[in-house]
User: Fold this.
Amino acid sequence: MRFDVFTLFPDVFQPYLQASILQRAAQRGLVEVRLHNIRDWAYDRHHVTDDEPYGGGGGMVMKPEPIFAAVEAVLGAELACPVILLSPQGRPFTHGVARQLAELPHLALLCGRYEGIDERVCQHLVTDEISIGDYVLTGGELAALVVIDAVARFLPEVLGDPQGAQDDSYASGLLEYPHYTRPPEFRGWSVPEVLLSGDHVRIERWRREQALQRTWQRRPDLLDSAPLSEADRRFLAGLPPRNSGEDQEAHDPDAP
Assistant:
């Protein structure tokens, strides 16, 4: 899958892209990230990409000319792929959105800066706007990296474990169950006995119940749309009220 990223700060991306899973995915030709400095398409000799907002007010606004020129030079006037603006005003970025975007062969990400981007870019160039949360960042670069990372996880062969993305939090509509590894005991805290039993049926049921419990404790809103079996519903019905701190601690597998 190819990502074309349009930004004023391409150097921000390299350290993360050249590490771990994304680096290996790029080396194997599974992911290609092309970085484009919008400043290279500025018309004046000072490469100005922002100006004061019409109507007054604080901050600077990114100019439309270099953005249009950059995107159209790379993608063509007809746009070879969707152009997504990373914006706090965009639709929420979720597990499902990442999965949908992973089905595309090519994606362009536009990173805003300063006070924002000239609205004509949003109306006549951008095809979608995405927000990674209800807060404001200095620019869209971090958000673009989040999108690239989350989308890449769904691509075949990117993860070492073929089932990895399917076991993640949100994949089943629930938060993920807790994980443990060696040693079996650390500072007096033991790994749950069921995980050492070798009984895979018991282990799978324990993991399902822990995922249900963790979701019920931390993100109960997810349970409204999660696919639940009758056994799941019986387990949830047996949990104590969430406002009972003592009961929650007793049922929390990570509680000290």
